[in-house]
Each structure stands twice: as structure tokens, then as C-alpha cells.
Amino acid sequence: MFWDNLKKRMFQMKSKLFKYVLGVVVCLLVILGLGYPQDLSSANSAVIPFDSARWKIGGKQNKIEDYLGEKSLLLNFGRAIVKDSQFSDGIIEYDVAFGEGRGFAGALWRDEDGQNREEFYMRIHQSGNPDSCQYTPVFNGLLNWQLYSGEGYTARFKYPLNQWIHVKIVVAGK
User: Fold this and answer.
1) What DSSP string describes 1-45?
2) Which sequence spans correspond to the domains of the chain?
3) pTM
């Protein structure tokens, strides 16, 4: 069900042209639901602009720039992490655009110590393949994508190039 909803959401994407890509562009905003109980509809949310001091942004290349008049974060081999988040259950939303070539983009949550967390990522270079997007937990710094593969963990999606894709991740329960 999670993957079916994800596929439907990704097909309902809003498209915009995008000039060039040096890496993966994670753009516009991330909406984090903080401290959701069971009912996600009554949640509080926060929009955290990428120029906020709440972000820890690192990587080979990272810069905030305008794409078609909209503020974006360009990441190349990098991560953007909200420093003070107490996120447990809720909704994570972001827009992303891809150019040609190998790459990964996604979100991580419930990061306890930099070594234990949950991740969702998109494999741009696997576009259209059964494992083009994947969920996996990370234990003691080790990715478990090989153990957590197949139905319920991976899904097929054909990524359009040079277009914005809206991603919505609903996180509920452990």
C-alpha cells in the first residue's frame, strides 16, 4: 500500500523546466511533521528554508541557488539534515529534479546518532527498474538494502529528466 500511494503521488508531479544539473537538486522546502501521535491529520508542521541555521548541509558540492525563480538546494555527494528535529511519525515532503547520469536522492529520518536511522532513496540510474526507489533501515552505519529488498521495500518508477518531482513520505510506526 505504501508503494502504491508513493507511485500515485510521484505520477501526480508538477513539472517545471530546469536549466542544468551538476548533481541532485533537492529544492524548495522540506515540510517536517514534528512529534505526531497516531493521527497524522492533526499534526503540526514546519517549513524550514534551506538558508535557515537549523540545517547542517555538507558534501562535495552544496549551494543554495535560484532555479527558475525558486530557491533550491544543489547537492552533490551531500546531505541536508535538520539539526534540532524530534521527528518520529509524520510527513516529509520535498521536490527534486534530476539530470542524466548516476545518482541518488532521498530522505532520512529517526537518525539517532548518525549510525542508526531509516532512509528512503531514489536511484536515478535505475529509472524504470524494479528497484528504482527503496526504503531501508540503517543499523550501526550499515545500509541494509540487500536484506530489505523486494515487495514492501523497493518499487519501480520511471524518473523524468529536467522536471520537478514532488515526493511525499508518510512515516508512521516503527
Assistant:
1) -HHHHHHHHHHT---------SSEEEEEEEEEE-S--S-GGG--E
2) 2-171
3) 0.69
